Amino acid sequence: MTADPRTVASARALADPDPWVRRGAAVDLAGIGADLHRGPGHGPDDTGCRFVVEQLAARIAAEPDPTALHAVLKSLTAIGCGQAVAALLPYLRGESAAMRTAVVDALSQIEATELVIEDLLADDDADVRVRAVTLLGQMPTRSGVGWLATLISADADPRVVGSAVGELMARDDVQPASKTDLCGQASQRFPRDPYLKFLLHTASTNQEASS
Amino acid sequence: MSQIPEPRRALVVDDSFAVRCYHAAVLGQAGLAADLAEDGAAGLERALAGTYDAILVDVNMPRMDGCTLVRRLREHGVTAPIVMVSTESGRDRELALAAGADAYLIKPLSYEALAGCLGLPGGQPEVSSAG
User: Fold this and answer.
1) Model ipTM?
2) Cα gap A190→A97, rounded to integer Å
3) Is A138 helix (H, G, I), strand (E, B) or coil?
């Protein structure tokens, strides 16, 4: 697909020396990309918005200005296709906590993230699994409880299990008895972990109070 | 009539409600009452509005991450000991210490590790501390 002149001009403006111009270009590309992604005849992963996503994605690592970077991430969120998710994922493994936080926030607002969350929860890197639990907590998915329960019963890293239990405790859609049961499982698997012991005690107390 | 001494206070900044409650309980063991904030931006506001004997900060948080929060606190002249407490495996340690944290601990927080950082009785020297 050949990009139209307006798209090319906006893509060029992403490298302008003025951060306000770059910010405006990102906003402009969001509109173009969203139109292409949701336009007639285009599916969720259509190649229509690939060029736009590629331009924005290339800007994430290069953008020194926080407001322009915020605009780039917001634009990818607004486009919301699978390619936007794929462009954001590498930054979930980055060194910068600020970037990881911003990327988790962006991914949590894209519906297509749900297609990759299971892979992230099974990632080889425990830090990525912890971040995936945080991401899951910010997403409106109803499948979250099942995934959390799987992590609690099977993940080898107590930090991941602790994050999953902490997330489970915050959910309103889980019955107090289930929370106690899953906290008990986690505490049994890692009996020396004081955080898991604390959460089991809290869950039991809450269950007693609710019955 | 003798005056009742003010309790020592700490601020816990973490986006997880469960972690905030747990850290408040650990601080309670150390004799510190805890105020709670759910993200970096709320933590900054809270820390600048009060006086704290210690500040516990998570690394990954919405609105403002922990390293940015610590940097801002130091820029504002906050001198309280700041302990970063992270679920991460430790790859943020150098960044946290460079931002101005006094120590970096990996969750789960234990009383002994916290006491070690804050110079309280029963503390264990922490490999991850700045000192």
Assistant:
1) 0.86
2) 28
3) helix
Of A140, A138, A39, the closest CA to residue A81 belongs to A39
Q: Is B106 on the interface with A (CB under 8 A)?
A: yes
pLDDT for the residue numbered B11: 97
pLDDT at B101 over 70: yes
Query: With contact defined as beta carbons under 8 Å apart, do A163 and B87 qualify?
Result: yes
pLDDT of residue A7: 85
Rounded-to-integer distance, Cα A19 and Cα B28, Å: 47
For residue A107, what are the CA distances in angstroms to A36, A38, A152, B49, B104? Answer: 20, 18, 23, 33, 28
Per-residue pLDDT, B130: 42
State phi, psi for A95 to the nearest 5 degrees: -80, -25
The reply to whether residue A167 touches residue B16, judged by beta carbons under 8 angstroms, is: yes
Determine what percent of chain B is predicted with pLDDT higher than 90: 64
Cβ contact B22–A131 (<8 Å): no
Helix (H) or strand (E) holding A120: helix A117-121
| Closest CA–CA distance from residue B25 to any residue of chain A (Å) | 9
Cβ <8 Å between A169 and B17:
yes
Domain residues of chain A, as ranges?
1-115, 116-211
Helix or strand or coil: residue B1? coil
Amino acid at A136: L
Residue-averaged pLDDT of chain B: 88
Please state, in angstroms and rounded to a whole number, the distance separating the CA atoms of residues A27 and B84.
35
A53-83 residue pLDDT tens: 999 999 998 999 989 999 999 999 999 889 9
- Residue B44 contacts residue B72 (beta carbons within 8 Å): yes
Q: Which chain B residues contact residue A194 at CB under 8 A?
A: 26, 108-110
Residues of chain A with pLDDT > 90: what percent?
Answer: 64
C-beta of residue B90 within 8 angstroms of C-beta of residue B110 = no
Q: What is the pLDDT of residue A12?
A: 92
Cβ pair B108:A101 closer than 8 A:
no
Closest CA–CA distance from residue B53 to any residue of chain A (Å): 23
